[in-house]
Amino acid sequence: MSSTPRTFAAVDLGASSGRVMLARVGPGTLDLSEVHRFPNRPVRVGGTLHWDVLALYRGVLDGLREAGRAAGGRLDGVGVDSWAVDYGLLDADGSLLGNPVHYRDARTDGAAEKVHAVLPAEYLYAATGLQHLPFNTVLQLVAARDTPQLAAAERLLMIPDLISHWLTGVQGTEITNASTTQLIDPRTRDWSTEVARRTGIDLSLFPPLRSPGDPAGELLPEVLAETGLTGPVPVTAVGSHDTASAVVGVPADGEDFAYIATGTWSLVGTELREPVLTEASRRANFTNELGVDGTVRHLRNVMGLWLLQECMRTWADRGDPQDLGTLLAAAAELPPLRFVVDAGDPAFIPPGDMPRRIADACAATRQPIPRTPAEFTRCVLDSLALAHRETVARARALSGKRVETVHVVGGGARNALLCQLTADACGLPVVAGPAEAAALGNVLVQARAAGALSGSLADLRALLRSTQEPVRYTARPDTAAWDDAAARIGLGV
Predict the structure, then answer these.
(1) Domain Carbohydrate kinase FGGY C-terminal spans what residues (predicted)?
(2) Out of 161, 242, 342, 424, which one is annotated catalytic?
(3) Rounded to whole angstroms, how far apart are CA atoms 229 and 22?
(4) How many Cα atoms within 13 Å fall on the side-chain side of residue 244?
């Protein structure tokens, strides 16, 4: 292992923006900087909500060009991570068959009933360990069964594998993202052929599985020319589900922790060695997604800062744009827990008038209704903290995992009010940061594969602790107030 730091680029695509980060990594060294950020704006065409994946790829190329300039024209590697469940279809010539459909599109309405008619929910969970979400890939494929695009498809690539393929010409299916399809058996870490057979899904659409750390090709000559990089530049499969990379980026000391990967979603759970496939876990709607180094992410999706993002978009569309910093400061001055909603309510999933939906939910539970943007913001943050509380408690109970600390990583780690409320709600210390945990996890896996680092996840996290500066929040005891708020909306622990 060389003592000289090496340079890696992390392509990290989120639901609202993409970024390319540049890292210098070596023993005792982990420096990360953002070189390019670009918006991720879905587009509705013909009544269907799509990802503008070519614009995303343009942003990736621009970012790699900036990374190369910052690194003197050479990179030691590239890794790609993104959100889960969505995919692109390629024809026999490798051409993209239309822009990928967004998971928030309504095309999967009714798909779950079709799947459960041939695979009862209990069997499906026992086979795949995946929580029920209305947009799981298996439901998307069932909804797309009679479409011309699926009929013409020769290949299906999950979003990070699609970007990696365009960069290298090599096709693969990285396992952490594949585990969100509801077609993977988390015990064998391989395809569930029985689930595929019963749902009529052709597994030959998927290229071979690969794991974090596996080689994923080298940048094509045309990509080198486009970005100005000097080859060869290897591309490495990382935890291509951004949450898998983010959990690598949790600076935990030991194993007694829960994590909350915050952003558009809050992914709340624990890191385990074996999946939890019990009926209690299914009823609690926990998922078992595969992680790096044979780990399992036993977690539940909570709606996340999407609630606030969509409120802000709605206000801007009405001609009343809001400044986030001003909103958070005003929300911090308001009385706590006056109004809360169930952040797991599927009514909050689609885009649209989020303030109206929050007001309707408050009215339905006979609570006061928020009136001002600051009140809506306080409602969202109190509600998210309450959901974090309930989910951490259930994760502990279902897995038997000891939890002494809650690590908050991702964009929400910058939100001091949310972090403090989460500590208060959970009654546990919160360690917030790093905000760019997904990019850090991405480059740590690359660096280890390239020989710039060595060791286990614990060793990688030790490097994080020695190079990053998290913020610590101590819980303020007021359990009764949180119990009362949970009871108002029917949440138990």
Answers:
(1) 258-450
(2) 242
(3) 14
(4) 32
Query: CA-to-CA distance for 252 and 431, rounded, in angstroms?
Result: 9
Q: Is 109 exposed, middle or buried (0-12, 13-18, 19+ CB in 10 A)?
A: exposed
Rounded-to-integer distance, Cα 1 and Cα 464, Å: 18
Looking at the DSSP bridge assignments, the partners of residue 288 are: 298
For the chain, what is the radius of gyration of the CA atoms?
Answer: 22
**What is the rounded (10 degree) CA torsion for 110, 116, 121, 126?**
-130
- 91-125 pLDDT, tens digit per residue, is 999 999 999 999 999 999 999 999 999 999 999 99
Of 231, 126, 144, the residue nearest 186 (C-alpha): 126
| Residues 462, 301: Cα–Cα separation, whole Å | 27
**pLDDT band, very low/low/confident/very high, at 2 (cuts 50, 70, 90):** low
**pTM attached to this predicted model:** 0.94
184: region left, alpha or beta (phi > 0 left; psi from -120 to 50 alpha): beta
Q: Domains in the chain and their CATH numbers? A: 6-236 (3.30.420.40), 249-433+470-493 (3.30.420.40)
> By C-alpha distance, which of 227, 403, 377, 376 is closest to 299?
403
Q: Find all residues with CB under 8 Å of 147, minimum gap 6, and list them.
A: none
Backbone phi, psi, residue 101, to 5°? -80, 140
For 115-119, which contacts have Cβ atoms below 8 Å and span 24 or more sequence positions?
115/139, 115/142, 115/199, 118/198, 118/199, 119/195, 119/198, 119/199
Nearest CA to 25 out of 334, 354, 467 is that of: 467
115 phi and psi angles, rounded to 5 deg: -70, -45
Q: Report the mean per-residue pLDDT for the chain.
A: 96
234-236/471-473 β-pairing: unpaired
Query: Would you put residue 304 in left (φ > 0), alpha (ψ -120 to 50) or beta?
Result: left
Per-residue confidence band for 493, with pLDDT thresholds at 50, 70 and 90: low
Distance of alpha carbon 461 from alpha carbon 155, whole angstroms: 36
Q: pLDDT digits over 352-406, tens only?
A: 999 999 999 999 999 999 999 999 999 999 999 999 999 999 999 999 999 999 9
Contact 67, 14 (CB under 8 A): no
DSSP states along 231-262: S--EEE----BHHHHHHHT---SSS-EEEEEE
Provide φ and ψ at 288, rounded to 5°: -120, 90
Q: How distant, in Å, are the alpha carbons of 249, 438, 474 from that of 444?
A: 8, 10, 29
DSSP type of residue 263: S
242: annotated active-site residue: yes
